[in-house]
Design brief:
With 110 residues, this protein is an all-beta fold. The protein contains no helices and nine strands. The termini are far apart. The N terminus is likely disordered.
Amino acid sequence: HFGSCSTFVAGFPAIGCFKPQPPPMATVVSPVAAHESPHTIRITQLEANHIGSRYEGQVSIATGQRQGQGRYTYPNAFFTYDGQWQAGKKHGQGLLLFGDGGQYEGAFRQ
């Protein structure tokens, strides 16, 4: 016996008392800090997306592209970029970390 449950999922009653879980690629959206651009929001991907990458940082409200400061972990996890973004591309000062312990720190241009 599953008991009765009044929980509804997408307009359908739940079977038993099944409680839906957040989607695997849940993203947390939060306001930016006072020193960051008011034209961006801050996002945190809690899990990797469909290609295996993750991003945590600022995103343009107008375009949805990476904009400002952020950290991107590539799908192969060998590379991680932590730095400035412009129009969805690495641009400005940043740090590119390699899985073997190497790194490049300096300027990136679109």
